[in-house]
Write a structure and sequence with these properties.
162 residues, mainly alpha, Tetracycline Repressor, domain 2, 76% helix
Length: 162
Amino acid sequence: MALQTFYRYFSSKDELLLAVIGDTLADACERWAEAGAELPDPLARLQFYLTTTLDRLEGSDNGAATARFVVSTRWRLHRTYAKELAEAEKPFVDLLRSEVNAAIKLGLLKPHDPEWDSWFLAELARSVFHFYAFAAHPDGELDLVKERLWRFCLNGLGGTTA
C-alpha cells in the first residue's frame, strides 16, 4: 500500500492500531456472544465472557508474546488516545452489560450501578489479563485465576454461588 493511501484513512500508525483493536474486539465479542448463546442463563454467559478473556494466555510461547505486545501497545495508546481506546473497547463492556441486565431481570444479581459495574468488570478482567501476560505462571494456574475472578465479580454484583 502506498503511504499516501494509508494517510487518506489514518493520520498515524496509532490510529491504525486503534482501528485494529476496535475491529478485533468487536469480532471477538460477536464470537463470544455466539458461543455464549448455548449457555443456559445470563450468569453462565457472564462467567464465560469474563473468563474467556484469559484463554489467550494459555498454551504456546507465541500466544504469550502476542499477549505482551497487545498489553504494551494498549498502555502506550491509552496515554494519548484514552477516549478513542475506550470507544474501541466498548463492545466488551456492552456484552457484559447485556448479561448483567438480563441477570437483574431474573433476580440473579443486585448490583449497585449496573452500567458502571459492567465497565468495572471489563477493567478488572483486563487488569488480570495484563498481569498474567507478563507474569510466569505454572500450568493450571489460570483455571484457578478464572474461578477466583468469577467469584469476585459475582459477589461484587450481589450474586451468590449457590
